[in-house]
């Protein structure tokens, strides 16, 4: 600072560092401080573009990857393999997330505290006090108490519970942390301590010997003895697998008979480790070395069976369950092949209540919710002996088979069939209550009755019968069954050397009970809408069994393996089931609604060139759609003019070829052949018909002469007497009508031929620029009919008919007034057509008129040559006939008028030619 | 959690060759599972299977389900249909089907309400013929079944027939089976001998006596041969020793037991030492010898019930150094929660401690206590334990209190504060 101070003093007065007080004559450096402050930070060079970069990133992140694809592929492969493994077997929930601590009996009530996680991520720990009631031999699981909830930060992976002395201790394992709770008699569960680990822990177990001691194993192979209130003490650090390289991260730690000796296990085996000295360990169980081990077998879970036998440990593999005595390592005291399809990772051991009963082991697997019950006796004085065949318990999915609509059935099966996540059991009063927990957060319970007969000898028959009687007590038709029971006692006894109910009645009972009572506790309000937890409880009580067990044994062949539909389920049960189902289906629909996609605005980076056009297009489409809708609604025609579509390209009608312009032989021949007079032309050309022509000419002249002479007579007659006129008129009418008739007839036919097309045209091609109007026809009923069919204005059409009828009769009878008639007629015909036209085409009148002019000219262009011969005739006959002139001019006039109002169609062009032929 | 599935694949291909018999003590009625039942073939394999194989697989599944739910009659029906698989043309599957039918069949028969012994015999005989590979095992199981039904002579006959059976090359598991057959042959000879012995003692009969001796000779030859091989042969050793003792051949018996206990080839077996100790004790061996045996046992199983005797032996021993060894023994014993409510053990500890105190060896007590005080206080001396002891066993409470008093001299006085308060309170009450 000193080195700069001189300069600073010198320059100081010229600089102003105050932000808000600008001084004159100084350089204001108000923002300098900010600039200096920012100098500390590294500037992002593309900051100005960052927002664009971000948007591009979001838009293109699917296509352009941040990570090199080779590396990504490797990682993806790894991840997929891991996911596949997870799908097959999840080692992290080994041990199960369902715990159970028995509470002291008060007034003959069996109370237990169930500990299980809830919530979408299984991250809120529930302590639920459950009362097991055994009224008159009927077990009932009362879950009406509300549970105490602790919300945790991670998913619960394992819950380990032990009752030590007077306290229940609960260890809860999450991925990176472990917590402990203590349940004292008559007090609320309270948390003791939480530890955090650097690596994921795979095992947490509570000491059954010393209150407040836990053993934790982590993925890295470290094992800790954790005493509450003290720092966890690492007693083992195994970097590799114990006996061979299995590449597995799973480690497990359990207590053993000595409070300071722990079982340290991984997939390859288990060792006993003394936590007091670092190098004191010896093998307890080893894959490949323990007798009866198969190759490929792996340790799935181990459990210290302290409450059954102080030195026994349970080890399960994919194939077998072993009981090992830690005093005699590697030699199994007992071995079962558990017959489960997936590896059992939940185990629960229930000690024998007295010497006559057997110890029970429940093994549970994740997939298919398999649960298997094993029995064995002995262990202390007697050698271990398996007791009866193993038994599979019903999974929730099997037990709750209700007939439902297929989609609901699917929903329910999906929900009930999720992976199992825990298993626990408790026994009291001769009942074994098994609780099963699934990953969806559902809790199921089923109760089994223990059979108390010990041996299969004949002496115990009565005892067995007694038991069945007890079960059958509520049955009303019991007396009727009695004799039969006595007659075949052996059947019941052969299977009853185990504690369970004999197979038949047990199974039946289970099935009956499975469906007999089911309680639903829904608590979607607890964790918000995301919680999908509903709690189902199937409590299996010895409900009235309608058939005697012996009877069932006889009928066993006729029965299906699976529980039948709950036809005989109680109404109450049905109601409860319905409630659960509704809540489930409700939740599912709600879940769907809550899904939201992230929206990304890309307006700014989109190219805007065609935007306006697109908008216009859109509007137009909208308009078009509206127009269409309106037309539909009003049952109107929807025409091109009504829409705002761009006008269609009009292909101009090619100019009519005027044969008179082409005087060469070929052209003339062509036009002649077009007109159908090819032969005549040749004859003309070659002069073959010269004679006949001359004759025809002569004949014609003769006729004309004659006609002139008659006309004069008639004319003079008209002046002389009106009566004679009448007579002659009637006499001549036939001859004139011959000529006139041929004319009018030819016209009419041509007209009607032309009409055929225009008739349909207004409907099919409403906006065709070529066909603009209906053809107008004079003196024919057809046209009126045509008009009628198009526009059913009954009034006008009647008039039309009238108008038509009139000229025809006039035509025939009053030859002298054709002009007037024709004008009247056209006007009367035109008036409704005009209306029609106006209603339809008022918008484009202008352009139409233009068109009409075009057609008019074309029409006249084509008609001129046809008129020409007549004129020639007229000219050749100097004594011109007034009527003929009048007629032709009248016709041309009519045509003119007609053409003014109509632009004839293309189709009318042949008519034009035809008419020329007629002329 | 590496590749369980892959390993399963291996095990499936390996099949049941390496299925060795589990411990001999286990009942015959153990549940035997054909390995192919586990993880039945994957979808990929299923795509290729024929209709026959598919239906047999489904049938097997149905049998399994029925058996697991204890529907024996249904399972029997399915099994009768399953016998069709014996006609499978592939050799591998046929032999597998044999084994499956044998195992499932016996299991079902065992629990079927209408099964008779004749059915068993018929099934076993048929299976012996069709499943030649498992002949030895089937014979063994058959004789076990006969034994369970009390037909000892039939069982013996079955075994002797099986023992003389030879078929092709012997595989490793087969030789193990034959060894077991041999062993049980000898054992049944012993059982018959034992029965004869009890009947002979009542009626002196020369012929039956001779018969008994012949059984002894047979049994001793086979048992001796069997026991000479390393393994856990507890019942066989005991029976052999029993016979030798009957014929007053103590030296041979001792030799057998010592070999069984101390031979390094044998797996470590605390029972061997117990048998040796019991034998020597029966024959009034000097305490030094007993102590040496128990010392080994203590090393193997510190929590063994004989440790109290060991402790008393050490305390009463005149050999210098033995007394010092007694203290850890009893302390170790009480480390185990299984002994924590045992009055005798606490009495033993109290005795040893008073002896030590009298002899001025308190530093040893202090040493032991130092190692244990962290968990002994919570394991033995919580207020809860005092309360419970006062309810259940007041004598124990008294002894524990005395021990606590002695121990209290070595630790901080407040260690037992709560416990002492409780004891005072309890004694004031009564």
Short recap of the structure:
The complex is a heterodimer of chains A (919) and B (430). With 919 residues, chain A is α+β, with helices and mostly antiparallel strands.
Describe this structure in words.
The complex is a heterodimer of chains A (919) and B (430). Chain A contains 23 helices and 33 strands. The relative contact order of chain A is 0.05. Mean pLDDT of chain A is 68; it is low at 453-568, 720-830 and 861-919. In chain A, the strands form 9 sheets. In chain A, strands 3, 4, 5, 6 and 7 form a 5-stranded antiparallel beta sheet that branches. Chain A has 919 residues and is an alpha+beta fold. Among the domains of chain A are: 1-39, no CATH class; 345-450, no CATH class. In chain A, a hairpin with a 5-residue loop joins strand 25 and strand 26 (371-377). Chain A is elongated. Chain B is mainly alpha-helical. Chain B has a domain at 286-429. Chain B starts with a helix and ends with a helix. Chain A: Residues 496-505 have a biased composition (Acidic residues). Chain A: InterPro entries: TAF1C, TAF1C_beta-prop, TAF1C_HB, WD40_repeat_dom_sf. Chain A: Residues 411-722 form the TAF1C helical bundle domain. Chain A: Residues 474-488 have a biased composition (Basic and acidic residues). Chain A: Residues 170-306 form the TAF1C beta-propeller domain.
List strands and helices in order, with pairings.
The complex is a heterodimer of chains A (919) and B (430).
Chain A: H1 2-12, E1 15-16, E2 27-28, H2 32-38, H3 50-60, H4 69-88, E3 99-106, E4 109-118, E5 124-135, E6 138-142, E7 148-151, E8 158-164, E9 167-173, E10 177-184, E11 190-196, E12 201-206, E13 213-218, E14 222-227, E15 233-237, E16 251-255, E17 261-266, E18 269-274, E19 281-286, E20 299-304, E21 312-317, E22 320-325, E23 332-337, E24 344-350, E25 359-365, E26 371-377, E27 385-386, E28 391-393, H5 396-399, H6 406-416, E29 420-428, E30 431-438, E31 443-449, H7 461-472, H8 478-487, H9 489-494, H10 503-516, E32 518-522, E33 534-538, H11 549-555, H12 571-593, H13 611-634, H14 665-674, H15 678-686, H16 690-720, H17 722-764, H18 781-790, H19 794-813, H20 818-841, H21 845-876, H22 882-901, H23 908-918
Parallel strand pairs in A: 1-2
Antiparallel strand pairs in A: 3-4, 4-5, 5-6, 5-7, 8-9, 9-10, 10-11, 12-13, 13-14, 14-15, 16-17, 17-18, 18-19, 20-21, 21-22, 22-23, 24-25, 25-26, 26-27, 26-28, 29-30, 30-31, 32-33
Chain B: H1 4-14, H2 43-48, H3 51-68, H4 72-82, H5 91-111, H6 117-130, H7 135-148, H8 152-163, H9 172-202, H10 206-227, H11 234-246, H12 250-262, H13 270-282, H14 287-300, H15 307-316, H16 322-335, H17 343-358, H18 362-380, H19 383-392, H20 394-408, H21 417-429
